[in-house]
Amino acid sequence: MKQLAIGFLSLIAIALPLRAEQPQDIILSHALQARQDNADFLGFDSHRGEQFFKSQHNGGDWSCASCHTDNPAVAGLHTVTKKEIEPMAPSVNPARFTNISKVEKWFKRNCKDVLSRECTAQEKGDVITYLMSLNR
Amino acid sequence: MSSIKVWDLPTRFFHCLLVLSFAGAFLTAESEHNRDLHVLFGYTVLGLIVFRLLWGFIGSRYARFSNFVCSPKGVVLYLCQLIKNQAAHSVGHNPAGGVVIVLLLLLGIASGLSGWAVYEDIGTDSFTEWHELISNAMLALVCIHITGVVVSSYLQGENLIAAMITGKKPGEANQAIANNASSLAWLVLVMVIGLWFWAWPDAKDLNWLLHTIVWWQ
If you write DSSP's letter for every residue of B47-78 in order, what string do you get? Predict the structure, then answer.
């Protein structure tokens, strides 16, 4: 059964590049990675994502919310440059999570700033799930 | 042969400030904490190169493009002679070095402009990719430049690195430049340091710069 599930997910993953990327596709690719990282992977959770988004990690002075604010459905403000950052929630900003290389690039850069390490697929999937759960 | 002045002071100050700004921009590129500093260093690179382009037309003898930019044919000829150890000695830049310098200046401009486009959200996201690509190409070229200087120093039996600091090289008295243009050089230095004082982000970011340097090591 497990093999069947992995096989099915892999088939979808192979078929993904054939159409424009959607947030669901990006979540799926993180799910595949999370399952590879951890055999006990149980899926993503928007509450865990919300908590991750809003808290500081490892004594760092920033959280995701430092720039993206506690409400990702509104525009954020870069704490250093004071420049506006477009909303993260796809419900108000449909351009979000439609380009996986862009998503990965920014996770890589920003996770280093917030956690002093790269994020795991589990953490990234939780955060995207949280952002997708937000309504207008 | 005696020790003569070859590099005027503005050229040497430009070189030193460009090294500092370019290195600073690279060290502050990885973190959003240092975004202000990174942008400041990038703008400094742009300003310095604009100055150098002007100085390439009105500067002293060996600082002028007309002294060290030659045709592609001339560059190939020089490289062929270099392999056969028959290359003529250049008082200023040799033809191959001249190519690298022109490319460095052009890449510096492209890096600065693409970085500005990224910062101001002009155009598409692809500017980010271009900015990284151009800046990495410039870093690679810096490595080629340093290699060329070290190899040339060895082949010619003269210290070209020291020459870029003191401005002096071995040569005939009639090959020396007449004017060091010191006043202009100090003016440029004061302007750059003034810019940094005026635009430097607050002390918190200075801590982050130190943090970044420690993290890099």
Answer: HHHHHHHHHHHHS-GGGSHHHH---HHHHHHH
